[in-house]
Amino acid sequence: MVDLLFDFSQARTPMELIVVVWKPIIEIGIIWFVIYKLLAFIKGTRAVQVLRGILIIAVIFLLTQQMRFDVINWIFTKLFALSVIAFLIVFQPELRSGLARIGREKVFGNILTEERTIDEVAKSVSILARKKIGAIIAIEREVSLEPYTESGVPLDSNITSELLNTIFMPNTPLHDGGVVIHGDRIIAAGCLFPLSQSPDISKLLGTRHRSAIGLSEETDSVCVVVSEETGVISVANAGKLTRDLDRERLINHLRALLYRPKKEKKPHVKLTMNHFFRKK
Amino acid sequence: MDWFSKDFWLKIIAFVLAIIVWAYAREDLDNMPGYASQGSYNRQIPAETLQR
Q1: Among A17, A135, A190, A241, who pairs with A226 as Cys (CB 3.0-4.6 Å)?
Q2: Considering only CB atoms, which chain B residues are within 8 Å of A43?
Q3: pTM over 0.80
Q4: Is the pLDDT assigned to residue A4 strictly greater than 60?
């Protein structure tokens, strides 16, 4: 095992020995990280079931290879060539959201969202929850929600809790669908969001929650949902739903996800300069 | 420690798979004609290379 990992015959000086030892460790570390991220990503999707199927087929393939069933082996070989195309088609949504997720890893931090937006959303949502009025509010972060706003009615208005409550009032034209918020503006209402295909979502949750999770899977947006049946407030982020939030917890949760306070200028340099030019 | 305890078995499976993938890749590269890893002192110069 050690011989396989480290080819000590290549090392003649201590420095080369370090390279020989570290290179495979770093390489394995990188592969480990990529495979772990891949497995963690697949874990929560319907790809798990498909992966199990592929695993069973792979085991049968290995068995037929060992037992020298040449014809069956030939069929499997041809099927594997086709399965690459099938893989791309079947996993198209997962591949798309996976690649999008890689692109929006937290390199630049969270987008600055107005404190007022969080307060207005929380205020509106707590009223809607009390009255058991269903609502879904998507707060845009770095990935644009433009494809989804196109399915709704454009508003581009200042955010107020009164307006949000009015939008979700039953039997009104805009209540059926989601609201999209960008910064401190309501961009559109009555928008259609993609439904999540995850098998892990509880059957008790309706289409509203499923679409909130779906949108948070496809984009980096944060979705606030109010259940029409129970009045429970939930937040969907990165394909995960946090349930049973009250107003205070919702504000804290949204702040943690969205809010990045403006950096205050450190007075360090100024003080130093003052100190330098200070008259004695 | 907290990092390790989260998804513990997934990390173990990923680690085993990583070693298998690495070993296969290494074996394939070692069997590749004309290939020798960088820094290797005893590597063979490919026969096609003109030697002056």
Answers
A1: A135
A2: 10
A3: no
A4: no
